[in-house]
Every structure is written in C-alpha cells, then in structure tokens.
Amino acid sequence: MNNCFQNFDSTLGGRQVLPATYNVSDFLKHRMEEVVMLTEAVNEKPFRGQGFQRLPKHLRRRQMSHYSKKLPRRLQGTQSNDEVPGPGKRPSRKFRRRPSNLQQEYCQRQTKNTWLETHIWHAKRFHMTSKWGYMIPEKCTTKNLRCLYRAICRNAILTDISYYNCIQLEGPEIKLLENLKKCTSPDCGLTFGAKIFLNGEKEGHLPFFYPDSYPQGIIGHLSFIWKPYNNLDSKRTLWIWVHPLIHFSVKKCLEKLFKLKNIEECDTSKDIDKNNTEIQTIKTENSSDLNKDMDLMNIKSKIKNVPFDKTPKFVSEDQLITMTLLKDTLNRFQVTGPVSQNVICKVFNLIEIQNNNNKSKEVIDTDNDYEPSKKKIKQDTDLKKTYEKKSKWWQEYYREETNKKSWDSQKKFFFTLNECTKPTDIPSGSVIPLVIGDPRLTMPERIQKKIEPLKKSPSILENYFESIFFNSPIWEPHIRDEVSMSKLSQVQINKARSKKIVPGGASNSVIPDTNLPRIPILLVQRPGTANIKNRPNGFGSGFDIICPAEYGAAILEAFSIKNVHIGGLREIELLNFECRNFNYYFQPDSEAGKITSDNLAQFYKNRYRNLPPNARTNFIKLRSPTPFHCAWDLLIRDWINLIDDKKIHNKFNYKVLRNKKHLRELREVVNKPQTFNFSTMKKLMDAAGENCLIPVVIEFVKKGKPTDLALICLPKKEDLLSGKEPEEKIHTDINKKKINENIRDEEQNHVQEPLPIKREENTRDTVEESSSKNSKKESNWVPNLSELNNIINFPSRTLMGYVTVGDFGLSSGNSSGLGYVSILSLFEIIKMVNECNSTSLKVLVKNPTQRNYKFAKLTVPEE
C-alpha cells in the first residue's frame, strides 16, 4: 500500500516530501513576478556600452573599467563579460626570435667567454666586459669612487678573482726546485726554495722568467703555495696561481722545463657528454628535487666543476713530475679592509669534527638565542634521502691523529681571529686552512648592519702557527670533487628554511648535525702597504679565500648580505693604484705588457679616427711624439745615443730593473740627492745596465692631473731656479699644406669621377678608400716615428719616460701616477738637482693633449 504513494523523486534517491495541500494564490503570485521579469528582459533594448556606463556619471570611477569588483554587485556580471580579451596581437620581434631551446642557448652563450660562478649575480648589478677569455665584472653602477675607497679604509670590500688559473706540480722536492730555479733569481727576492715557503706556512710571490734568461725574458708575476709536509708521501705538491693572460706562456715554459707530455687530449665538453650517465647518478643521489627523467642538458648545465680525473695532465719522461691544470676548478676571492677578519668570522660557520660514533657538532652559531630541540623538529624526508646514500669524507680524513690535531689548532685560531683589530695582526702571507659549513644555512634573511672595527689590543697569534696547523683536506682532489658534487641545491635550502620553528633561526637546525656539508677552504693573508706617506700601515690588507668549485655564488651572497661592498675590475685597479703595486700591472718588458699596450693603442687609434676633424688633437703642434703608446725601445735607444754620442739606429732591448739591492741603493740616492757621488752612480749603472727602466712614482706639486701615456720630461735649470711651470709653444704644422692639397684633390676627384656601375666593384673601392683615409688621418695630425731621428728631443723638454697609470690619489689628496723612466735620464736629473741645491727631485709632466708642463716630485717606490 505504501509503495503506491511513494514520493516523485524516490527513484533519484531524494528525501523531499510534497505537502498535502498548497495555496494557489501564493503560487500564482510568484509566477506572475517571473512573467513580469521575463517581459521586461524581452522588451529591454540591448546596451552596447561598458558595464560601468550603466551608472550615472557621478557614481562612475576610472578604476571600474579595469577592476570589475569596484562596480556594484548587480553590474559585476556584465563587466566581466566585457573584459573577455579578444584575439591577442602578434608577439614582438624580440620574442619571435627567441630560441626554441632556452637551456641549450644558455649553455651556448658560455662557449665564447667562460662565465664565473658569480656571473648571474654580477650581471644583474655590474657592467660586464669580456677580457682574457672570461666575462668579468668591470664596475658596479655606482658612479662615485669615494664610497668604495671608504669601504677599503673603514669597512670591507670583496672581489671575485676566480679567473686566476691554478697549475699543480707534483714530484720530488729536489727535482722540482732544481728546474724551477732556472726561471727565478734570488736578486728579485725569495724564490720557490725559501724555507719560509717550503712547509706551506706562507704564500710567495715572485717574477717568473723564461729558463736561463734573467734579467730579460720575463713572463709575469705569479704566486705559489706549497702543500704541507706529509711523512707518508715523498712527493711534494705545489700550486702556482697565474693571470689568465700569461697562463699559456707559463704552461708552455713548464712543459719545456720538465719535458712534459700530455697524457691524453682532454676536452671538457666531450668528457662530460661521455660520462653523462655517471654524473646523473651522482647528482640524483644528492638532489631530491631532480626528476629521474630530467633532460641530461639540465644536469650538465648545473655542473660547473671539472672532476680531477678529467683535468688535463702532463707527465715527464721519467714519470716523476706531473703537471695538472686546475683551471676553473677552484674559486678565489679577495676581502680587503680593516674589518675583513671580523666579517669572515661572522660569515663562516666553523663545524667541529668528531670521530666518535661518526657524529659532528656545531660550535659556532650566528643566533646565540636559538636552541633547536630535536624532539620538536620534523625531519624532511627528502633531506634524509639526500644524505643516507652519500658517504662522509671527513669521517675518513680525520681518523688520522695528525689531521685531528691540525683541526684542534685551527679551531683555536678561528676563535682568536675575531679578536684581532686588523688583518696585519696576523703574520703576512700566512696560509690558514679551515673547514666551514655551507654559508647559506646560517645566512640572515635581511641585510645586516656594517661591522665596526674592534678597539681591543691585538692578539698574538704566532703561538698558533705550528707545523701541524697547515694540513687541509682541500689538497686532496677526491675530497674537492665530493664537496662539489654533494652541494645542496637552493630548493633544499628553501625547504630547510620553511621547516624552521623560530622565524629567523638558523636553517641548519632542520638538517641533522651529522649531515651538515663541510667545505674546506684556505685563508691567505695579504699584508698591504707599508712605509708609504699619507697611508696607514697595512693599508689595503686583507685575506684571499680559496674554496672548491660550486660554492662561489654562495660565498658571494653571504658576504653581500653582511653589508660588504662587492667590487669589480675598477675597484681592483683603484686598490692597486692607491697601494702603488707595480706587480699588478703588466710591466712593459713582458709579453703580457706588450700585448696589453698594443690593444690599448688600437683602442685609442680607433677612438681618434671616429672623431670629427675639428675635434681631433693635432699632436704635431703639441709635440707629443707617441700619443697612443709608450715607445720604450726608442726611448732607450735615444738616451744611449745621447750619452755615448753614437749614431746607432737599431732598437735596443730594454728591461725593468728588479734587483732589490740596486733599487734600494737607487732609492737612497733619489731621496737624498745631496749625497750624489759620480763613482758610486757609475758602478750602479754598470751593474744594472744602460737599457734599464726604473719604476717611479710622481706626485704633482700644484694643480693638475696626469693621464695615461703622459710624458715625464727633464726640466731645465732655469725651470728649477725660477719655479715657473713652462708651456709648450704651438709649433707650426708641417703637414698643413699637404692636408689642404689632399682636401682639394678629393673635391676635384669627387666631381670628375662618374657614378659606379657595378655594386661589387663599388664595395671593394670603398673598403680600400676607408683604410687609406684612416691612415691619412693619423699621418696628418700624428707624428711619424720613422721620420723622427730622435723622440726624446721632439718636445721642448727632454723626454725621460712615460706615465703608465695616472689619476687623482684619494689617499695622498693630490694627483699622482705610476710610470717608468730611463736609468740614464734619472742620473741626469740627479746631477741637475744637485747643482741647483734642491732637496727633492722635481720633473715636468705633460699630458699628450695639453701644452702645460706641471712640476711633480719623483720618487722610487718601496719594495
């Protein structure tokens, strides 16, 4: 019976029950309202305007046309229909020309010039330049140099010099020193065999020559570090750091010196392609965020380290000497400033090594108030998988008792380093090994305030420098490879930060202490300047940081967030100019110096050619013999001919005086010209040679600023006695008639010549005409050296030398410059000053584009 009276929606599973009775009047009332609404909608005319135009004008707002939620609720539906975008227009040409595979194009851009690990960070904030086969940050967008100078004097500044290449030599110590001795000289300072360098305590610097070619044939300056002694291994390891411009010359010289042969032709790109499967397994074990099906190109782009097995190696015939090119496998940074040691202690997080139960413990934390509780921390499963499969290199390395003792002494030193007031409290050139944690794990979220220098008394750190102190795992190639491969990705770091219990706490609390990554590094102390007027003792001192590959960007970001200025090439040049470091600049008698000079000369010539005729300086009128380069060979030739009264037109080989004993004697004479003795000066000149160039520093007495390639001239006695700065007369232009004739001929030829018929012939003619015009431009306003018999007498004052680098000195407060003069001209000025009873050597300096001579004080720099 109940089945006959079931509800209408029972088949649908509903539970609605119809009432037994229903009011007909209410039903008709609701239906009538619906009919009225339908008739109004049908009779209403279509509105073609925007939804907000339905409102009266006093209620309309401009934002309603862009943001529909500003409309009344009843009109929001109409506005949303109006906002439906139409067919999109064609993308711009920039996006149409984008490559199909951005990852491949990104890797291809790095083939022409090698990118540093910090390239992306620098490219967003710096002007980049291509030099020496690398893309190097040239200068930051800051236009003022004084803020950078203040950072050097008061705070700290960091620069990336990872483009310096490292060459590793392995073999018996006696055999290494026996051959390297041929390329050095004890007259220039300490060499590879000095006792202070052999035990690995300090880094050395020296000029490197071709074998048995001293005092000529210099390649360039380099630095070196010996691996500390190891009783278990009879072989010694030597790291040689060279500039990329002289890397090829040094490599070829060492190959010839030790008779080395390449084991196999090792192309980095091919080797990585062949071993993609091996690299993929390593990276997937240490990267939980990588998919197993990821394209191999994505994996290869993340690998910046070249494994030690794939680096180019050279072996001698007797299999005793091995040379390995560690190019682009180590990062090197320079930290300069009085608080550099305090910044290093704040950025780096020292991790204690314990062999008991294979555990390790953190001993330094940037947040002292943060105490992580292991019970409350939920470990991330991905981070666990990352470390379970990977072995720990420090567990094996620190099992040896000597390495454990070395770590204990390093830990004591690190605690004491933060108490130093300046970097010079540490012995100069000291090599300090450390093992730190990943700086990204303890990096603060916001930029910190500047670190003020301490005012405590300097600590005595010499007690910590023991022979066992200098052992470091960074010398082991397999450890460097493992450290680079086991680097945490940024995704894992972000996951660790998201798991923090206390906001702002250290991210390493999420990762187990036993699994914190260890990074071996070397700190190399740089002494800076000493005994320079208007500069504090130790100005420009700091530390060099050497770390394995893959951690360059992490260290740079950690320093930048600690409010440390980041610099480029401009800042390095500023520092070396203020410190008067001649070794940084390529010296004129080296191959690198000649290549750099030729490139600069070509740059100046092209810039001069692009100027309009009325803006070109007439160097013939101003008596500037070489406005685009320094003619050192002609300078030495003319001075020898002038003193010896010989007419020799051959070019003389010149050299820079590097003998420290001779430079010391010469400095004493220059500082006290009253003690001039002709016999002693004659002996010094005979010992040094007549073809020597002497490095000098000039400081302007009055106003003015020297530029690069400025002329250092010998004053006359009248100039010294009167004290007035002379002016170069505007000489008559010999080529004036020839210029007018050339212009007249060009105008006539242009009118008489018919129009060209063939386009190919026309293009060939225009190329030839442009090259001939460029040569004419130089010959019209630039002196022709082949026609000049003597360049030193071309200006009204005798030419002594050139200024290679000139600018306003921020430390001294006046204009100064670095340059070289002939040793014969230096003797002449000493004689003249002695006759005039002057207390200092004053010379005249003239810029190539000016007429005025400026008085400047000449000194020989300190060692």
TrEMBL record:
One of its GO terms (biological process) is tRNA 5'-leader removal. Pfam families: POP1_C, POP1_N, POPLD. Its main location: nucleus. Keywords: Nucleus, tRNA processing. GO terms for cellular component: nucleolar ribonuclease P complex; ribonuclease MRP complex. Residues 62-103, 739-780 are annotated as: Disordered. Residues 62-73, 90-99 have a biased composition (Basic residues). Residues 27-82, 96-171 form the Pop1 N-terminal domain. It is found in: Nucleus. This is Ribonuclease p/mrp subunit, putative.
